[in-house]
Protein 1
Amino acid sequence: MLETQDLTIRFGGHVAVDRVSCSFQPGTLTAIVGPNGAGKTTYFNLISGQLPASGGRVLLNGEDLTRLSAPQRTRRGLGRAFQLTQLFPHLTVLENVRLAVQARCGMGLRLFSVWLQHRSLIDESMALLERVRLAARADSLAASLPHGDQRKLEVALLMALQPKVYLFDEPTAGMSVDEVPVVLDLIRDLKREGRHTILLVEHKMDVVRELADRIVVLHQGALVADGEPASVMASAVVQNAYLGVAA
Ligand SMILES: Nc1ncnc2c1ncn2[C@@H]1O[C@H](COP(=O)(O)OP(=O)(O)OP(=O)(O)O)[C@@H](O)[C@H]1O
């Protein structure tokens, strides 16, 4: 179980995430919603360790991760989708995935290691590329992929790490209409496996309604609603938050 207790960050006088306490169970998908600037991405950054908390704690299965670096949290099982800048643009799509698989296996990033030739690494990497419908692009340079394919590659890299917790921050942003279902299918598959804790920041309410078991609403950094999708969506506090009126 992933848990945040009174998680807080201040930027100068501005409290971007304000004492958010919430727990997330394996096998569930929770959508984090809220108006622009509500603190959703910052909340993810605090969970994954990209930002240090001003107060509060992040716990995974009872272990306090709050003082750990982002890579240490990744090793504990917190998976944050790679940013494009973390891809190796001049390596092929397959090589990028293979390096992520190697990293998970603790083989480091020794490019010329004999392990590179290891069949099982290549097989696992190709299987991941098939899952994200990128097998046909295995030999393309990562930098040459269109935007939607780069997003799919990010998901493949994340899956290569086999995290316990998946943090998806607007996974379909900037994708064309025909690419969106591929990524949503992947998230649906992960959810069906029932082992993962999945958190999703998403502005598209139809996607949220379809995928989420639960919705958490942030407004001005604070948690203002938490519950089953239909009731949260209908609640006055959400209507107010989305209208920008103080809840
Ligand atoms: N590094 C930073 N320094 C200063 N202020 C920051 C920083 N990161 C975020 N903020 C501020 O914190 C608030 C929350 O931003 P955040 O990006 O988390 O919102 P969000 O809910 O993800 O918004 P959006 O839906 O637009 O992506 C905003 O007021 C933002 O300007």
Protein 2
Amino acid sequence: MDATPAVRLDGVSKQFADSYAVHRLDLDIEAGQFFSLLGPSGCGKTTTLRMIGGFSDPTEGSVQLAGEDVTALPPNRRNVNTVFQSYALFDHLSIADNVAFGLKRNGVAKAEIRQRVGEMLELVQLSGLADRGPRTLSGGQRQRVALARALVNRPAVLLLDEPLAALDLKLRRQMQVELKQIQREVGITFVFVTHDQDEALTMSDRIAVMSEGRIEQCGTPEDVYEHPASRFVASFMGTSNLMSGTYRGGAVALEGGPALPVGARTGIADGTSVSVSVRPEKIWLSDFEPGMSVLSGVIRETVYSGPTTTYLIELAPGVTLSVLEQNTARARMEDRWSGGETVEFGWRPEHCLVLA
Ligand SMILES: Nc1ncnc2c1ncn2[C@@H]1O[C@H](COP(=O)(O)OP(=O)(O)OP(=O)(O)O)[C@@H](O)[C@H]1O
């Protein structure tokens, strides 16, 4: 296997006036992966993408593509293309001509252009619309044209900056699956910017979770969701019950509340103040297993939302847990809890994580 990463950032920073948009980022992106930069607005995702593409110069550090230092090279000398959220299609050209644009400019022979444009339109399922103008297309179709245009000259890396943000939720979900399929088919490294954690979880081989210009954690979707490295990652990725307390002998004592049994974690001294996190779907309300610790609390709210029901359970004054249950065929609706009832709940100790 070729171990040279498709993209390597080595100590890369970008400073604007007296603040850092990106601070000393080290990052390797393996060739052929769907890689996402994920984080809240302003965390430095776009700036990172722009430095990979050559649209922004790092204040320090270096950018390598396939082992070559490209820090000083302009965008057109890098084997990279970008798909922007705005699509930026040429309205006066047909769809086929939009896709052919870059190839024509590079002097590719007519027959080859026709063939490659045809292949690309097939890949994005727009073959029947080659002669139409972009104005006659839906948002999802325009997005596909932009994608075909960016892929047609076979870049080594494709950068995508929130390309699905303008689409409605249903179309967005559909395009997420399609985009991932297209990436697998073409085998090109995709670097995808999003602030939507569901999107990143669904599509990515690996995710870098960013906050304030730094990478908080980089790993597979499962790594970052199941084993968040910090309080920030636990709260940003999905819903977490985050609590603070004092670590002592394999449990965390909440202030004014019970001690919560937690998963093994070495290197924490007794008496240390820590945060703990347990996911709503990891909490059981019945059929407890041996080895689980079972606590009790009062149901404060029951929220039905179709496939799931969420309970808010007060476990101690001011400490409320969110618990998610699937409304599967086997769950009996009449067994749902209502407000004011005292219930038992529990979790496997390894699902209650102590966070840095
Ligand atoms: N040209 C610029 N001049 C000054 N500050 C900038 C410039 N570009 C970005 N910044 C700042 O750098 C920080 C990171 O911006 P960036 O656009 O990379 O974040 P982002 O994570 O992509 O956010 P969003 O999701 O909102 O696009 C922000 O605080 C932003 O205000």
